[in-house]
Write a structure and sequence with these properties.
Distance between the termini: 76 Å
Shape: globular
Structural class: alpha/beta
Radius of gyration: 28 Å
Mean pLDDT: 84
Largest sheet: 5 strands, mixed
Amino acid sequence: MTTQAYPAGRWEKWKKTEPARLASYVNPHDVTCRFGSLGATFAQRSADLREAARQIYDHLAAQNLPYETSRMDFESYHEAEQIIRPPGDLSTHGGNCLELSLLFAGMCAAHKLRPLLVLLRNHALVAVWLGGDLDETWSTGRPAARDYQITSNGLGNLQGGAGNLRDKLAELVVEGAYLLVDCMGFAQSGPAGAGTFPLTFDAAVERGLDETRNRELVNIVDIAFQWRHRLHRPYPVPTTPATAAVAVPSEPHNLGVSALGSQALTSTLATAAEAIPQLNEYLDQPEWSRPAIRRLLGTLAEVPQCLERTHLLRLAQGLDLAIDAGAFIARWMPQAALGAAVRRAVLASTVGLGGLDPQGLAEHLDVVVLRRPDGDPEGRTALLGFVLRLAVEAGIDSDDQAFRTWCTEGGYDIGKASILRSTVLAESRPRDRRLLVHLRGDRTHDWPDEGMAWLLDEATGESVAECSPLSCEPSAEGVAALLDEVLDWVDGLPEDPFPHRVDIAMPTRTLLCWRAEEADVGTRLGAHHEVVVHWGERLRPPQHLRRLIRQARHRLRHIEERNQVSGCVGWVTAELADDQSAFHEELLKNTYPGALGLRFAPTGQEDQFEMLLAQFPIVLWPEQAAPEWSAIEEIVRDEWVRLPGGFTKAYRTAWACPQDDQIPPLAMLRAVWDDRPWLDFCRTMSRHRVGIAPAGGAATGGHR
């Protein structure tokens, strides 16, 4: 018997000793190209994720795929290796349980469901998380609340033994946190003696749980974790005789300019046509596809030089490049084009959104062109930076032949691309340490007189070092001196961990009279550190606020689940806040389910302000009345994906502004940002009181 060898490339034999590498064989783009997508609307977040999984299963069941045992390489067979056939092969030759599971996982990922590959002894299944979608996992980079019971660092948490892991997984499935799918069920036939195939979705789910309970669980592979943390990315699918007939076209026929790009192009074209009569034929263009753009560029090449021609030419060239970049992203890293990541890439590559509200990859790419920096006439550098930043967030190594080929074919300068790649990588360098300082004192005074500090691991949120309690004079100078001592303590740690981010938790009254990032520690604290402010009383809340504390976690979950791109901020006027009865009624009705923004400075309203801090994880307010609130609210919406770090950057810009009218709108706001790591830290410390004892308590490390 002879076997067909795949051409040299990345689609290689799977070594069974490397379970995590199975994530590389899940290629969402190739799966949808070969087996079809369930439609754009389906790709959005679904209120019923079980139903979404059912639709994917039924869609694959309609493909009439046969069940086929593993392909063997008899010439170089090794029991520790296995050939995994690409998706294109499955459409004609069928697949085994592992290959069908990888196919189902790819379709789930393409439609925003989060799949985990469950490896049993001599069998494979897919677990689908029902607690949220892939966007949430990708944007936060964090596991679900109880994931630690079954996974650790993207693989099965085997510390308790495989049997215990299996029981935990089955328990989570029964509770409805996960769904187990035996993907062999959508094949048209099964192994001898396995019964009638295909199975209904419900039968495949029931079989998945039964198989898990009755077999040894070998491992679990969190595919999204492997992608998100740059461990294993999807392999490019090789072209074989079996797949050549259905090869993905290099440029899908329906690629075109988005609605935002079309509007800008139509407007610029109308102006140019007044000076260039040859352009009148394009005024009624129904849609701007790539062929239409190319035809317009051909016409512009033949008309006389003028300012209108230059403006239109640069815009059309930029939009043509944007279409090409979109096609490349779809081929090379489809899993990267997620909402929050795309928005961050746009903001980092342009001069800002300028009131535009792009939706989807195509509109974001067109905005890169429309909002390109001066000195980048076609948006070529901006588009290149956008693609590179998406790749970094997706954990994809851009030092790749496919990327270099795209640059060459698109006319990008390889040298400039290499320099920009180095810059983007430097910007995104992992920051593995975070310094947390908790300031406290008499709640009736403006200034704290003691504090503690912890150095936290950025990935786990766990404390890696703890400073002894410190005392200070209750004044701005005294608190700055305490921070100086804390930074000395960090400098003296053996690993020399530079904390890029400093979190400072402080009492309510201090929040209203002190800007932590301006603390004098030789320079302003915010000059070298990203400063994030928390409400310090959350560590040991007053009795009268305890019933409100849990509302913060509910509201943070709402923000994370509903809108991680532009946030969920409810803005409150001074008039409403002054009417305490009406405002209290709005709070009872949960009119503001996410973050809270105040359009007024809460000075002199400490009690009401503290009540809001207790129940809202994120509170924004100005230090003084701002004349133009629309601009402030717009910038908060646009920059949400870069907050809270964006506040420190805005303050730095404001420090350098010679005139008040040049201060960025974001710098006019103060913010308490109690994110999930801080809420989790408070919960942990409330259970283990060590570390929040009075300043005279026992020291656990550090120095005085």
